[in-house]
Amino acid sequence: xxxxxxxxxASELLSVSEFSQEDEDNTSSHDDGSDAEHHQKKKKKKKGDxxxxxxxxxxxxxxxxxxxVLVVSCxxxxxxxxxxxxxxxxxxxxxxxxxxxxxxxRVANDVLQVKIDxxxxxxxxxxxxxxxxxxxxxxxTLPDFEIQTQKAREMASSELILMTPLVxxxxxxxxxxxxxxxxxxxxxGLVIQGLPGVNPGPIPGIHDLEESDHHNAGLDQSSDDADSxxxxxxxxxxxxxxxxxxxxxxxxxxxSDETFAELAExxxxxxxxxxxxMGRLPIAKYFANLGDTLDSPYSFVLSPIFKDFNENADIxxxxxxxxxxxIYFRDILPLGVGDIEVVVSDSCxxxxxxxxxxxxxxxxxxxxxxxxxxxxxxVTGSIDIxxxxxxxxxxxxxxxxxxxxxxxxxxxxxxxxxxxxxxxxFIFVFTTMVFLVYDWAxxxxxxxxxxxxxxxxxxxxxxxxxxxxDRIMKDVDEEVQREANAPFASRGNRTKDQLQNFLKGKEGxxxxxGDEDVGAIGPKRSKPIADLFPEATIIFAxxxxxxxWSSTREPSQVFQLLETIYHVFDEIANRRRVFxxxxxxxxxxxxxxxxxxxKDHAIVMARFARDCLGQFTQTVxxxxxxxxxxxxxxxxxIGLHSGPVTAGVLRGERARFQLFGDTVNxxxxxxxxxxxxxxxxxxxxxxxxxxxxxxxxxxxxxxxVQAKGKGTLSTFWLQEDVAPPRLWQENENVxxxxxGGAIQFNEDDGIDLGDRSHHSAGGLGDGSASGHDPDxxxxxxxxxxxxxxxxxxxxxxxxxxxxxxxLVDWNTELLMQLLKQVVARRFAVSGRRTQPDALWEMARNVxxxxxxxxxxxxxxxxxxxxxxxxxxxxxxxxxxxxxxxAQCRTYVGMLASMYRDNPFHNFEHASHVTMSVSKLLSRIVxxxxxKELLNDGTVQELLLHDHTYGITSDPLTQFxxxxxxxxxxxxxxxxxxxxxxxxxxxxxxxxEEKSVAEQNSxxxxxxxxxxPEFGELRSCIFSDITELRRFRALLINSVIATDIFDKEQGTxxxxxxxxxxxxxxxxxxRRDQKDQNRKATIVIEHLIQASDVAHTMQHWxxxxxxxxxxxxxxxxxxxxxxxxxxxSAGWYKGELWFYDNYIIPLxxxxxxxxxxxxxxxxxxxxxxKNRQEWQDRxxxxxxxxxxxxxxxxxxxSEPSAMTxxxxxxxxxS
Length: 1213
Description:
With 1213 residues, this protein is α+β, with helices and mostly antiparallel strands. 49% of the residues lie in helices and 12% in strands. The strands form 7 sheets. Strands 15, 16, 17, 18, 19, 20, 21 and 24 form an 8-stranded mixed beta sheet that branches. Mean pLDDT is 76; it is low at 1-34, 213-229, 488-496, 508-524, 723-792, 926-940, 1064-1070 and 1193-1213.
């Protein structure tokens, strides 16, 4: 058949216009179809609800009434019980509070009386001494006053006792001379207090109370004091207990203070003790250990000193006992009772609030701050002094108001009301449950039928098209009706299984007791549900490279990829009204034209195929960050064929809707003979597109296709330049794949970091702070696209540059996840958070004067097992600062820039090695653990720590090994070390011709990390000298281990292996720490060695890809004269030797380590298979690789991202 593939430009434009217009028509029809589908779902749900039998309305009402009565009774009884019990608790609380409050008032009065008794006793003792010794007042000094008052203070719980004799003003000078000669009691008192070295100073003359600081004060300063004139005398402070540390308080005239003068007048007038108003203690600073009581509320208890014991004896002095108010409320309540608040108020406008809890009391606040909610429970009392006139307004009378608190009330509140209410409710519920048992037994069978019917209906709706569902349900309804009309005894228990039996093809079978309706061949069955659809188009879409890709990934990553891609395809299918048939592995099968026939099925399927291809390409690019390197290299091979299809329900154990016929086979052949990222059309599908005016969409395939069972076929390609679908035409964003598999959109083809870069002063924000070229930031995806179009259009970003940017993103994300684990463990073990870059200078100088190879150690010191690490926070909840994230990405980008444009030793291969290291670390498994220990998390972690030699317990070790994989080939020149030593003799001399490339990589990567702009990143990696040394040791040992041709290092590693694994290891045997560390060191070295050549132990296609690149690198070195040996001459045998003497023994060592689980078996199996495949095909492959290189034309090829990046960072490196 002839087709015109030379359509002119006008026809092409018309085709594009029609394409867009029909998309709008399809969208409109899709909306109408959605409404119809929603209506059909409602009908299907109603039909499912009608499967069960209906209950009688009268029975339903009766049961509802009984349930209602039981519920109301239960609620009423429970509520009444709750409130009754709560009221009882409240009554107990109020009664106890009343008892406690009365006790507080009573004890406070008793305490005051004790203090009055003490001060009166002192007065009597003083009068007695003066009379007995014949001393005349005021010239009386009690001996041992410190000892006497010490006992009195203890009895009265007083802080201070003062004696103030009344001195006639005419005797003032005589008194002053007396006090100067009799002041030795002060020094004696200080000695008793344990303060013999304190100098109290000289005793001043009589002076006002507020002038006590003036040591030279005398009578001339206070002789005209108005307050002293009230009594015509002075009341100077004389003896005090305790003795003052500053003698200037002595001879301070208390009558110079208006308050004390008024109080003294009352005492002299009434000749009885009195209590002063509340106030602070201004003279506390003159006494030791009273400085912190300056602001506490105090009152003075005053008592007169009489000249003799006659009834009308003159008052010759006063005693003052200083008492803090909290003393009145101590040791009243038993331990555990509280809190109670006491508001103390005097008639002189003094108000304070004290809190009492058990035997303790303290000042809560000045003023009345009690909880007004307890005013109804207030208990009021007074503190009275016997003989005082309570109505005398000149005196300060004290009132106590006692209140409970919420805390005290909560002590009386318990769970008893709730418990009793629950018990009552439980009794009713139990009664109700007994009543319901019978009803449940009756309804159980019916409920099971309805439940099974709904579940089956949901399954049928998800598996079959609507018309097929209708036919299935119709047949089931007829079967149910037949069962209903049958005698009850013959029904058995099959009603609930009608739909399941139908789908399994067993609806003709009877129960064991009944007869079997047998036909000529087997049990009689209903007619299958199947139809012929004469016009349909089938698509087969297979992921190219999936098998090889999945061999390097974790199972969860494989399923994440498939779920994400299939979810995208399903959404497109729903939008295009294409019916998804099934997925077989990585192949997606769908059909257009059934179950609802449509004439444009070929056009619809062409659009669907193109949508799927476009979305697939964008999705795999976006998932590189999550799934790692090579993900974007996956392709999609699509085949379409149109023709008649037999479709129906294939009943059996897993009934499915299936397609049969030659059309299905041909569509599969179109897929298998197609090309990567191309849509392959059969001649029948192409004819339909041409018939519908879409001839411009197709292009004849130049080569003939030989299809199995079909012979030679003429096929076509769907044009790649067909207008893109509205799915991404109206929004030029790129589909980004989130963590949950959902598609999100970004504004850039690269993975956009948003505004993260501006946080770091030395990062990527300004493009110049670190010497970075803005063009590099743009091409690598480091900088965010401007929202407005610039005046000059930026140069296009190549595919290789975008790929490098995605690899940088993936490596950054991997390192950041490990850094979170490092920070989480560090905080759990030591409590240290990330600190500023305190170790920068030490880190810069570490290894100074030594080559990295000289720092290789036999045993790396691993951290001991620490139980605290088990309780560390979830690393996913750790939030690192934006500066750390930006610096990490910058650092990875700079590492990428230092990789040269080699075919093999490049940044892509380093990322592949990194991915292998990460996979092996994630596959580290625990040993067999006794069942008795499974519930002990600490024991499990300890066994895992021992079994894996501490590797799993230390995130810093894992981070270091992963970073080692990323840097191990930095600045690799594309030739072995022996050639590099000849080409760069300066570098060879620097490293003494030992592992030159590896040492150079370590130094470049380390020096870059030590740059000032990576301070926050370094502080996350190591926070002390121990971590710094372990980090560097792990880096050096791991990178140097990749030089497998250094004989000296190889011998050392063999010796370490012999020491570490000379004897069999018992699973539960605890080894000493040195042995543990040796094993950890050698396992880490072999881990990175295996990862460096991981391609040889992966799928054949992966091995072939990297083997070809290594051959290309070696052959180019030969062609350019850098190497004098033609690698093709011995490549075949060299690979066999490499497998036999290095790869397979290395894989066996991984298995011998016993920590890598199934990965060690996987690597060994792939190594053996690839070795056999190479033995069979290797010579042919070598010839093909050589011919391909010789036929290449290097002119005009686009420079890769590595070339550009390396040029940008030449100075930086």
